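Pasting as-is:
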Amino acid sequence: MKLIDKSIDKEGQGYVTLVPEEPEDMWHAYNLISEGDYVRSSTVRKVQSESSTGSSTSNRVRTMLTISVETIDFDTQACMLRLKGKNVEENQYVKMGAYHTLDLEMNRKFRLTKHEWDSVSLERVEMACDPTKSADLAAVIMQDGLAHICLITSSMTIVRAKIEASIPRKRKNFIQQHEKALAKFYDNIIQGILRHIDFDIVKCIIIASPGFVRDQFYEYMIQMAVKTDNKTLLENKSKFMLIHSSTGFKHSLKEILQDPAVVNKISDTKAASEVKALESFYTMLQCEPDKAFYGKKHVEKANEAQAIETLLISDNLFRCKDVNLRKEYVKLVDSVRENGGDVKIFSSLHISGEQLEQLTGIAAILRFPMPELDEDDESETED
């Protein structure tokens, strides 16, 4: 994301002008834009015009429009963002108060105006415009007859392709059919890798599977690359990493990202630090349950005692429609930081974020035990 212009006063009112440069930037925009915000961007409007003879023609014209956002739709697969709302600025083609839809597009700037820019939104702008971030990890999770090709960026896990095939069992007199089906399945995966993975950006491609499926596939892929003189695959051989997973389904990413070898390889990515924080939380929950709590009520009480060492919070909570509730979460984040705690904002599109969602979307690792939090719960139940 490129920051073109920024003007925010001391009260937190103002605007930023941004240009999304890659699909992930649309996810950042989705997290930045809330209902009631003003968004200004160019759009195409169908205009009816009547000639002197009475015949009418319709033309499509491009115009700049500012709308007060009422609905926000984000397509995770296509990384497209669609906003709908009322026009709030004079325009020769669109009446004031008329509804219009804005599609935010790559490489086309938009201006976002908020009545109040809070710390979480400002941090999101900073993160989105940080040139050091990169979508540097890809994974092929597979088992016999099923493969998922995923891209893991700093903010999201996207399944780019799901490849399924029916592979006959390796039985006497059926060996040829088995090998033929397997080769076709492997070829489709190779095509998927070449189509969906940008080797200029991706630093590491994990191939994970149960058993020896990954080894057989990797061997086949390199043989085919040599045979067809595929320079892309041959030059990037060192980026492939073979890891065990229990299945070929997307949820196996959780165990893959916890593998020490993978953690070392991707230690500079945001995804790795999130996975590590969540792992620490689960360990603490098992070993020292009085130092690990989840749920808004418990976490807020722990914060009142300045006990939070690490706050784990899902970005989903900042998209809630209740403005006051959002403010409470922002206040909590600010307070934890003021007290010297670390805050990890998890992406709900990451595997780790999905796990945190199952724990209400908010959890905390404490500096010291607070068994009284559980006791409070028990006494309330008794009452």
